[in-house]
Design brief:
mainly alpha, 4 helices
């Protein structure tokens, strides 16, 4: 059974799918930090591929990520890359066993039965 985690798409939904809260604050993504952590993890987990296929995404969070790439916005996709690498890293640390990088265990966001976490209220701090 896969271990639960928050996917970047769920976090991104909180940040980007609340047009009614456009006057409220939003939380900026520190892409330098995201890219820096990816650079730290990729040498150890270079064979880990994305668990999202944009061929025919059916899960709303995956559709949002694929749509953002189609529009030329790589923020969500890079956050997804970090999420994939960090997931495998976390599983290995939690279990003390090496993960098959070409076939890592899927996380819960890959399952269409998962209900996303509720969105953060617009008035809540980042």
């Amino acid at each position: 059974m896969p271990l639960p985690r928050l996917a970047p798409a769920v976090v991104a939904a909180t940040l980007f799918l609340a047009p009614a809260a456009s006057a409220a604050q939003t939380c900026a993504v520190d892409m330098d930090a995201v890219n820096s952590r990816i650079a730290e993890l990729e040498p150890s987990y270079s064979m880990v591929l994305s668990d999202i296929s944009c061929d025919a995404p059916t899960i709303p969070a995956q559709q949002m990520m694929c749509d953002s790439v189609d529009l030329g916005d790589m923020v969500l996709w890079r956050m997804g890359r970090l999420d994939d690498l960090a997931w495998v890293h976390a599983v290995e640390n939690a279990t003390g066993s090496q993960v098959d990088q070409e076939n890592p265990p899927l996380d819960r966001i890959s399952s269409p039965r998962v209900t996303p976490a509720p969105m953060r209220p617009a008035s809540a701090p980042c």
